[in-house]
Design brief:
By secondary structure, this protein is mainly α. Helices cover about 75% and strands about 0% of the residues. The protein has one domain. The chain has five helices and no strands.
Amino acid sequence: MIELYGKKFAKPGLALYKAAKPLLKPAKFSNKIDWIWFELWHHEGRRARMATSMMAPDYTHWHGTYDLAKHFYTKYVPEIEKLISKGMKSGDSKKKASAKKLQALLDKTLNSSDHMWYLNKMTPKQKAIRKAATEEFKKKYSK
């Protein structure tokens, strides 16, 4: 779980945050993304990691990985996309260049095996595995 957190969310999330810096206001926590990243890293991420080490499954899942994934995909990625859009429309050539770099990094991140489901780019094998797991879950809990 701790390795998954690092590989899937912490390392790519931090790389995206650092790449977004040239597009942000300089004062810390004066940008929406500052708060989102802090909560992903410190709040949800910490809960998932600490709960794992304390063998607390409810906190590991619902208060950790669930919130982490939900906020990564529904808050963090959309905010990165807004920064890219704003940077691309800027008259400042440095901001445009930073936005292009950020877009390339976001594309690389989302097209990785950890996130490609988000773009609906799963392989047929991955889709079959998900479908089988869904059917097994429904069968188990529909009684």
